[in-house]
Design brief:
This protein is an alpha+beta fold and 442 residues long. It contains nine helices and 24 strands. α1 runs antiparallel to α2 (23-44).
Length: 442
Amino acid sequence: MVNQPLDTQLKARREILKAVATSAACVALLEAVPAAGAAFLAQNTESSQDSADQPVRVTWARDFPQSQIDAVKQSGSGISGPGRPIRSGFDLGQADSAKGHVKVTAENRESLASGSVVKQGFLPDIQPVWDLHIRDTQIILGPDNHYYMTGSTGNDIWEYNDGIELYRSRDLHHWTYMGLVWSIERDGGWEKQWRIKNGRPIRSVWAPEIHYVRGNYYICFAMPPGGISILKSSTGRPQGPYEHATNRNRPLLGGMGPVETSDLIDPTLFEDEDSRVYFSYGAAREIARMKDDLSGFAEPLRGVSLLSPDHNPAHHHPICIPKLGLNDIGFEGATIFKRNGNYYLGSTDIYDGRYTMMLAISDHVYGPYRMRHATIACNGGTGFFKAKDGYWYTSIFGDDAQAPWREKPGILRVEFSTEGRVQLAPEQPSFLLRRGNVDRFR
């Protein structure tokens, strides 16, 4: 298929999508999507970097009446703001979805944030590290010995937010608000366009990640329903100001063309020991090396193969059955990191009802990957980082009914088994635990 004209490939891809009810079609889809994606990038890598005076009109863009946009903005704040230290009796957050947001209360907790992962022993009795409304929590350790945290913020990212907020800490316990470091309205290019999702206007940054690569701070993010950009600090400082590393007038990937090539989210970056930077997104089914200045791809996206996939339906989101044939690592929230010569490629899936980050391991960044495994219960949509104390950690924000809270930032210490699997460390820092449980888990 890869040698066929692009329009022929995309037509074939659409036919496969219509026929995914059979297992044979699922296999065909897995083979066709990376090939079509690679051909698409090969034909568009250079053109996507062309300078243009005006942003392209992206898929799903609509010209809404100003009154409708004003009504969306009046529904809640577009930022989450400074937050505050966690106090005894903190509220359990709110559950956001395309259907709206619901505050977690004593009456509805069992259906929104029951904490059953603690009751069943999958997690210690932890508390958030900061009282803050945030999804897709991502943390790094910068070269200045500070931690930086970002994620999807604002009252309801299914409607709108103002952009990207950033937080800093010396110890993962006390956090300082660095403000709105990138504003859609002030700094955006193609991102300024309002689009339609679920029948409503939407303009929101989803799952931003901050990375320190090639001697500078970069932020990658997506705009729903799809479309990806990469920003760079113009000063070398984590607070920016930030400007586009990729073309400000068109998405790096997604957001344009037929639905199946536009609905792309959740980008991530990884710098290897040779200073080469790699990119993945979404379900982590493709990887590509970036140009040195991160302005675009240095190569077409390469499809990733997973050896010995897990075909237990209870270990996958229901959409993975018809769309991916259970041959996937996960369905969204890509991540990449490296430890002791092993590359870890991951994405989020629903594992026994829990929104959990799944990982697979390889000796090479392009794979093939092996040993798909669930990591830490309810840590989906986040990532992993090595801290100043030499231990590795993962983030958690709570996005399923078994979680201990909803949409607040937490972390957990992890360890690696002899075969390389990521698992919960038996000892956790005391500040992560609710009072009364310190002695047990310290």
